[in-house]
What does this fold into?
Amino acid sequence: MLFPKKVKHRKWQTGRKSEAKRSRPDTRGTLVAFGSYGLKATTPSRLTSNQIEAARKVLSRATGKSGKVWIRVFPDRPITQKPAEVAMGHGKGDPKHFVFEVRPGRVLFEIDGISDALAHDALRRAGSKLPMKTVVATRVN
It folds into this structure.
């Protein structure tokens, strides 16, 4: 699973819950840069390392030895949670897992070295493992 080796701050502040800011299109990582095809998010969400790993497995099985897969996201935001049935107060909970905040337009995965139909099918199946709506994007030269 993916998680940072070392972090400067163990717990982050929660941040605002406004839907307007989360659904604003991303400005970085929006173009297919490495492979021929990419999986692009169209709705906002949080990606956990388990979800990234599940999609990566689908893509690596489809590519086999001939293709290559790039993961364009990394979960570095800590999510904290207090244990069950603990009274209010006594500070913030311990870090439970790490997530990546996805905004619309972000390219999550890229793939190369396999046929067009196989790439589209693999990216579509990988997108079904993720908690957001996705589309298959092609490289623009």
